[in-house]
Amino acid sequence: MENLALEKTLAGPWRRFFARNFDLYLEIMILGMILNPLFSKYSAGYTSILNMPNNDYVMGMIYVPIALLVDAIICKFFGNSLGKHLLNLKVEKIKGEMDGGDWFRRSLGLWIKGYGLAFPLVSLFTFWNQYSRVKDRKQTSYDEKLDCQVYATPLSKGRMILAIVAIVIMYIVVIGLSAIGKQDEQQISKAISSPPYTWQNPYTKIDARISAIWKYSATKNSDQQPIYTFTEVTQHAVAILGLESADISLGGYTNAFVSASKKTMQFSDGGKYSTKDGFESWDVYGTMTEFPDSRLHVEVRREGPNFWRVVTIQEKPYAYTDAEVEKLSSDLWKTTTALANK
After folding, report:
1. Are residues 176 and 208 part of one domain?
2. In this structure, are 200 and 170 located in the same domain?
3. What's the CA dihedral at 32, 315, 331, 255 to 10 degrees?
4. 293-333 pLDDT, tens per residue?
């Protein structure tokens, strides 16, 4: 133990840098897996940020302080973080022991004076300032305020190989996830920036201008009736236009529809009958059986023996796609014979 104590020295800047990055990337990845689904489910604003192009900097400003808070909690309970433990680093008070308040104050100082609040340009200056201090064998400004220091002990060959492999794997994972994210961002950005396309209703031959965020596909149901599907580029909404012909009343059709859909759709009530644009109509809300958090809306309009149907399905947060779903539904109805003749 005495030999180990003698071998303890002040940690250099690069060893501290790699330990810090290892911890931060690991914590952000874990936090992202936990918080992204939660935030994006309830916040339309967060979902917009998540799907905006080049969102790395904004997401960094959100997640860096949260990750540093988690890091403080880990160090409070375990006395060290995984990255520092991997590289044989240890934060110690020059006099006394680090307590919970010290760890939280250190993380706060690191966020402000080390990461510059995660503002890209600001962080360049704060990183350089702290790097210069450590290189000159001085304390970082946030460590100096707490009267603590980061010490290092020598790495064995086995420990060094383990650390290098772990850090390389971490960077590969980060780069890979970033590349996947960039592909999704480019696809979304391209759809948002592209002009609307012209879609023609195959039955009425009437055109509609559809936003490029909607991907179109055409299929047929089990009765060989046409189904026209529009899927929102981020997969948060789907709109389906269908046409069926039958010599029955609107009530008879809706009863048959509810019966046929009972395994896949759950409706909140029996729906509402009304007249829209001079034609009988039926509206009902509900959810998809397999996706209880979804919002389902079915609207049917009758024109003689023809029953036009627009079904929209939205995932939370509904506000993220409300406006686009409403516009698309309106555009699709305008291509039906009923509205076209008005």
Report:
1. no
2. no
3. 170
4. 999 999 999 988 999 999 999 999 999 999 999 999 999 99
> Taking the model in full, what pTM does it have?
0.84
Is there a contact between 232 and 307 (Cβ–Cβ < 8 Å)? no
Q: What is the DSSP string of 295-315?
A: EEEEEEEEETTEEEEEEEEEP
Query: Residues 143, 85: one domain?
Result: yes
Q: How many domains does the chain have?
A: 2
Residues 161 and 226 in one domain: no
Tokens of 2: 């005495």
What DSSP designation does 115 have? S
Burial class for 33, CB neighbours closer than 10 Å (0-12, 13-18, 19+):
exposed
Helix residue ranges per DSSP H, the chain: 2-7, 13-42, 44-50, 56-78, 82-86, 100-109, 120-135, 141-146, 157-193, 250-261, 322-333, 337-340
Compute CA distances 222 → 216, 225, 244, 260, whole Å.
20, 7, 12, 11
Phi, psi (5° rounding) for residue 35?
A: -90, -30
Residues 162 and 222 placed together within one structural domain of the fold: no
Phi, psi of 145 (to 5 degrees): -65, -30
Q: What is the pLDDT of residues 99-132, one digit of tens each?
A: 999 999 999 999 999 999 999 889 999 999 999 9
* Contacts of the segment 263-269: beta carbons below 8 A, 24+ positions apart: 263/289, 264/288, 264/289, 264/290, 265/289, 265/296, 265/298, 266/296, 267/296, 267/298
Q: Range of 141's domain?
A: 2-191
Q: How far is the C-alpha of 21 from the C-alpha of 174, rounded, in Å?
A: 11
* Mean of pLDDT values over 9-14: 95
Do 322 and 243 have their domain in common? yes
Q: Which of these, 317, 291, 213, 302, lies nearest to 256 by C-alpha position? A: 302
Place of tokens 């026209």: 228
Q: Which two tokens stand for residue 274?
A: 């009304």
Mean pLDDT over the full length of the chain: 92
Return the CATH number at 293. 3.40.1000.10
- pLDDT-derived band at 217, boundaries 50, 70, 90: very high
